[in-house]
Design brief:
Length: 302
């Protein structure tokens, strides 16, 4: 009889991930974090020659900026908002009574001015726009943040709260497309150094609804998004661990980013799924890091 133990079960059993009772919301062990720290150091080394400006935002962002970004038009199924109790003392008494009666106490919550960050780069664009016109050589940023997307799953590579490392380029079309092309090569070299099997493919974002289907087709036709895929949960459906995105002038128009030539700035980014790469390493090399190939250990630990 075949084993029904899943990769997620194994990660729980080994203590690498910690079950919280919510699919896609996990604690991480010290070893899991150590692997991640070493991976991030490797990413930093690959991007160091470009001398990006390092910025770190919290895992929540302005609701006003979020609304302006247009995220809800394309991905309403993934968004998460922060709701809070905003009532009077009398409302608090009612709230306590509802809890005591095991009712739905969340009905008294109201949306705050904060939403959960869906991608590390979203808070960056208005921040950069406030600086004024971009310099002649554009701008390049190094970001990392916890992100939220509401897609609960038993697949350990599809978490609701996860970390994303990004390099974001702003400038002319030539500047940002050159940046993406460079990272398409770098990304494959980096994952190759980790001894992981990979596949590079044209992709699209998970746009919602009928209009979303047309947006997805357009995105693929214009080759605006590439993903570097690694088998984690299954060989048949490999997981996107890196993505390479050309936004064209979408964020430039939305947040009034202007290139040095007075034109609307274009943007592009490369994103690394932090937990996903760690999971890929554990899946392909095993949960005992001491038995990993020496070349992989050297790449991560030196």
């Amino acid at each position: 009889m075949p084993s029904t133990t899943t990769f997620l079960d194994e990660l729980f059993d080994k203590g690498l991930l910690i079950d919280t009772g919510v699919d896609g919301l996990y604690g991480r062990s010290g070893l899991f974090e150590e692997i991640g720290d070493r991976f991030q150091a490797l990413v930093t080394r690959y991007g160091a020659e470009d001398e990006p400006e390092v910025v770190r935002f919290p895992p929540a962002m302005s609701r006003q900026v979020f609304e302006k970004s247009g995220y809800m038009k394309s991905f309403p199924q993934l968004a998460g908002t922060v709701h809070c109790f905003c009532g009077s003392p009398a409302d608090h008494v009612s709230l306590l009574q509802t809890i005591e009666a095991k009712g739905d106490w969340t009905e008294g919550q109201k949306a705050s001015e904060i939403v959960l960050t869906p991608a590390a780069c979203y808070p960056l664009y208005p921040t950069a726009a406030k600086r004024g016109q971009l310099p002649a050589d554009g701008l390049l940023f190094d970001l990392m943040s916890y992100c939220f997307r509401h897609e609960p799953s038993k697949d350990p590579a599809r978490q609701q709260m996860f970390r994303m490392r990004e390099f974001v380029r702003m400038g002319t079309p030539d500047q940002v497309t050159e940046f993406r092309a460079k990272w398409l090569e770098r990304g494959q070299a980096l994952i190759g150094e980790l001894g992981l099997p990979l596949k590079l493919d044209v992709a699209n974002d998970p746009f919602f609804g009928r209009t979303g289907k047309m947006l997805a087709v357009n995105q693929r036709d214009q080759r605006l998004k590439f993903e570097l895929l690694i088998a984690i949960e299954s060989e048949e459906n490999p997981t996107a661990c890196l993505s390479f995105n050309y936004h064209q002038d979408h964020f430039g128009k939305t947040f009034e980013l202007e290139s040095s030539d007075g034109e609307v700035a274009h943007t592009a980014c490369v994103g690394f799924g932090h937990e996903r790469v760690i999971l890929a390493l554990l899946k392909h090399h095993g949960t005992d890091v001491k038995t990993w190939p020496q070349s992989v250990r050297k790449a991560l630990w030196g």
